[in-house]
């Protein structure tokens, strides 16, 4: 009942001054600014609150997916292993708003000589097209996940045009010489130990060398030299190499990268051998997702997940859903100097619940946190928050809000 009342009070004030929402216990009041329309079904507002580490200030987009023409999709730079700013991706796609998305392979200081790919941690789906799968849990970037969470967790949009939390698991095979080898990776910057990964034109031109670095439990573990790469063109092995390469992958071509046991399996194949690669991203919930971005859950059915970090505070980004997936919330904290202390993950979950979400995920934060809108009159894309690094950080992907008129 408290959550319902909170939503009613929070989102019905369309004009005038801010609204203070008191919560149970000793939690401070949430101060909400007036709603401002961005487009039909899409509204923006600001908020502030006093958090455990200092004042927090932020920005929210509320998206009504039941409004005709309103939808969501993945913002990304055109390939999985690339980066761009949220404002650039939003403007390029003609979205009316957006936030940054998944954590990504941002640095490789632990593996000198290996380039960071910029590829995201979790699965990604854009316009119903599978772009990539999740790296092993131990290979992820970002804060500690709550117990039971995994890099395969996503938030997205189903074929029913409703938002939901889900989990996308890679299933697939490499069929050659009468054998069926399990596919363990798809357009991802890190492969499981002993696995085989497939890379297609969606990957981009970034080096695939990072796929053989670290282990399933330790991102910083050394890279293995036990690797092998096959280029499969139109269903037949065209060439081979002893270590992963780089460069654009043409349409109709798949590059297979194996490490350890996976490399030994690929060495059995020779030029001209027929190879068939199949991959799928299987949802845990009902039906396929036509849009998905990686992020770990912090709120389910209006309840905070157990084990959320309540001590480390930072600037954060979140996305959430309510009303059976008909309402979608996009949030980014402000990284201005007066608010840079941010929120803990537990406080973020509380905040998303107070804003009306039933389910929510934590997305990439810190210098990546960005929320943008497009002015309905000028058509200009504006960064609403102050990124904590002083300027927008190029990121792997984001969530875009689209309105067909």
Notes on the protein architecture:
The protein has 405 residues and is mainly beta. The protein is 9% helix and 37% strand. The strands form four sheets. Strands 1, 2, 3, 4, 5, 20, 21, 22, 23 and 24 form a ten-stranded antiparallel β-sheet that branches. Strands 8, 9, 10, 11, 12, 18 and 19 form a seven-stranded antiparallel β-sheet that branches. β4 (42-51) and β5 (54-64) form a beta hairpin. It is globular, with a radius of gyration of 22 Å. Mean pLDDT is 93; it is low at 1-18.
Summarize the structure.
By secondary structure, this protein is mainly beta. The chain is built from 4 helices and 27 strands.
Number of strands: 27
**What is the percentage of strand-forming residues?**
35-45%
Mean pLDDT: 93
Low-confidence stretches: 1-18
Q: What count of helical segments does DSSP give?
A: 4
CA gyration radius, whole angstroms: 22 Å
């Amino acid at each position: 009942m408290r959550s319902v009342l909170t939503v009613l009070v929070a989102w019905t004030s369309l004009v005038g001054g801010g609204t203070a929402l008191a919560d149970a216990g000793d939690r401070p009041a949430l101060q909400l600014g007036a709603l401002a329309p961005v487009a039909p079904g899409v509204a923006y507002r600001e908020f502030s609150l006093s958090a455990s580490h200092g004042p927090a200030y932020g920005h929210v987009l509320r998206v009504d997916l039941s409004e005709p023409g309103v939808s969501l999709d993945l913002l990304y730079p055109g390939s999985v292993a690339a980066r761009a700013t949220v404002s650039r991706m939003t403007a390029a796609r003609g979205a009316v708003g957006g936030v940054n998305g998944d954590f990504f392979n941002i640095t490789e200081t632990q593996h000198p000589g290996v380039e960071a790919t910029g590829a995201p941690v979790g699965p990604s789906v854009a316009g119903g097209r599978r772009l990539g799968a999740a790296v092993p849990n131990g290979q992820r970037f970002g804060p500690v996940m709550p117990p039971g969470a995994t890099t395969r967790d996503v938030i997205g949009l189903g074929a029913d045009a409703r938002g939901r939390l889900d989990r996308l698991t890679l299933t697939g095979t490499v069929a050659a010489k009468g054998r069926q080898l399990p596919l363990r990776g798809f357009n991802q910057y890190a492969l499981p130990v002993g696995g085989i990964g497939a890379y297609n034109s969606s990957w981009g031109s970034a080096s695939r060398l990072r796929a053989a670095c670290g282990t399933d439990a330790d991102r910083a573990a050394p890279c293995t030299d036990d690797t092998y790469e096959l280029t499969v063109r139109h269903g037949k092995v065209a060439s081979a190499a002893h270590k992963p390469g780089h460069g654009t992958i043409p349409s109709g071509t798949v590059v297979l990268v194996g490490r350890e046991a996976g490399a030994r399996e690929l060495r059995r194949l020779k030029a001209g051998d027929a190879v068939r690669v199949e991959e799928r991203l299987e949802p845990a919930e009902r039906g396929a997702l036509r849009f998905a971005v990686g992020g770990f859950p912090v709120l389910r059915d209006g309840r905070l997940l157990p084990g959320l970090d309540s001590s480390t505070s930072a600037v954060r980004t979140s996305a959430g859903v309510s009303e059976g997936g008909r309402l979608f919330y996009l949030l980014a904290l402000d990284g201005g100097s007066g608010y840079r202390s941010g929120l803990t993950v537990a406080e973020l979950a509380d905040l998303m619940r107070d804003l009306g979400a039933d389910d929510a995920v934590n997305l990439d934060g810190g210098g990546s946190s960005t929320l943008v809108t497009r002015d309905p009159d000028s058509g200009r894309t504006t960064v609403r928050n102050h990124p904590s690094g002083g300027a927008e950080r190029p990121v792997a992907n984001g969530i875009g809000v689209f309105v067909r008129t």
